[in-house]
Amino acid sequence: MDMLTFFWLFLKASLLSIGGSGNLPFLHADLIPMGWAKEADFVNAMAVGQVSPGPSGLWSVSLGYLIFGWVGAGLALAALSLPPLLAIGVVYFYDRVQKYQAVQYFSRGLALGVVGLGLAVTFSLARSTIIDGFGLVIMVLTVLLAMGKKIPVIVILILAAAAGIIFYQS
Amino acid sequence: MDDVHLPPEKLIPMDGDDSGLWKLFLIWLGLGFQSFGGGASTLILIHQANIKYGWMDEDAFVRAWALSQISPGINLAKLTIIIGFHLRRWMGLLVCLAGLILPSALITVLMTAGYAALSSNPLMQAAMRGIQPAAIGLSFTMGFQMIQSIFSTAYREGRARFGVHFVLLVGGVALAFNGTISPIIVMLTVGAGTVVSLSIIPANKAAAGLEAR
CB within 8 A of B31, min separation 6: which ones? Predict the structure, then answer.
């Protein structure tokens, strides 16, 4: 495996994305055709990213580990840590241009676009992962519980794990 | 409102030794370790710490969070960088980010490694078959939550604008659906579409007043 290409793909995904799961479509588009990662690696990395502490954007560190071990995790972490530094420049730049209406509209449009991308990729993952009624029920219940914002995500995932054990082990 | 621009030394003591930086590192290390369960809980913890230590006033914090949404990378990392830079410039940035990210990343890898080792275990497999649909549900939920504030703004701006936002979002999903169009093209297209359509369709008067604010 080519370390430089690996680092570049993760750095590019992070540079072109806004938000922690924004790099998902880019990594998905690059790594799947190259045969470096499978659909299941993405689902598992995202699951670990949700359960582990810190920003859920660290899911791609998990993906890096699944592809390329500790070196992959380190490279993925470095690739994740560099692009956010541009935020310092953005703060200065935004102070100068925020008075323009078009800037406000465009940033709103970027947000809509990034959410649209995330939803599209999640649909794709759902199609390959949710294969029975039980999965569908868990997914819908999760959305209902998580939208309420009252129940910590970790509790929802523990409940889902317990439900999986009860349903599939018996 | 003046404390937005308070010099950093008034917020965290800048004495000769680096006790301020060390303390800052420990605070963010604690935030990183405590924030199980994804970004929402991390943001809540950072917000609470910001109030407790008086790093920024509420307006500056919200602005920092908003600006964190429009540049590349993990939003929470950008928020951390903006706060760290505000407090102690480049060293503050480094210390806060390292505190938040390093322990969390290490635990993430260990959990992935543990998962790889356990993934042949039937009990673990059953648990993961429960967790995977939940992770997808959480991903959908995050999408819904991310657009909530935009859509409530659009709602205040009138029916026409609300409809346009809905069309733009669905258009983005449709463009991205096959995965054949580059994500950045999708975002720029929706961004340009938003500028054009919102420039043509005016907001209703009450919201226009808000917008000009």
Answer: B42, B45, B46, B49, B99, B100
B141 and chain A in contact, CB less than 8 A: yes
For chain A, the domains span 3-113, 130-170
> B-chain residues within 8 Å CB-CB of A115?
143, 146-147, 169, 172
Q: Determine, for residues B82 and A88 on separate chains, whether the beta-carbon distance falls below 8 Å.
A: yes
pLDDT digits (tens, 9 = 90+) for A71-130: 999 999 999 999 999 999 988 887 788 788 888 888 788 878 878 888 898 898 899 889
- The reply to whether ipTM tops 0.90 is no
DSSP letter for each residue of B26-44: HHHHHHHHH--SSHHHHHH
Q: Which residues have CB under 8 Å from B183's CB, separation 6+?
A: A16, A17, A22, A25, A26, A29, A117, B176
What's the gap between Cα A152 and its chain centre?
19
C-alpha separations of B76 from A12, B106, B211 in Å: 19, 17, 26
Q: Chain B within 8 Å of A151 (Cβ-Cβ)?
A: no
Asked if A129 is an interface residue toward chain B (Cβ–Cβ < 8 A), one would say yes
**From the CB of residue B85, how many other CB atoms can be counted at a distance below 10 Å?**
22
Dihedral sign, Cα of residue A64, residue A66, residue A67, residue A71: positive
A97 at the B interface (CB within 8 A)? Answer: no
- Please give the model's pTM, rounded to 2 decimal places: 0.68
Q: What DSSP state is assigned to residue A160?
A: H
Q: How many CB atoms lie within 10 A of CB A133?
A: 8
Find all residues with CB under 8 Å of B179, minimum gap 6, and list them: A25, A28, A29, A120, A121, A124
Least Cα distance to A112 among B158, B43, B186 occurs for B186
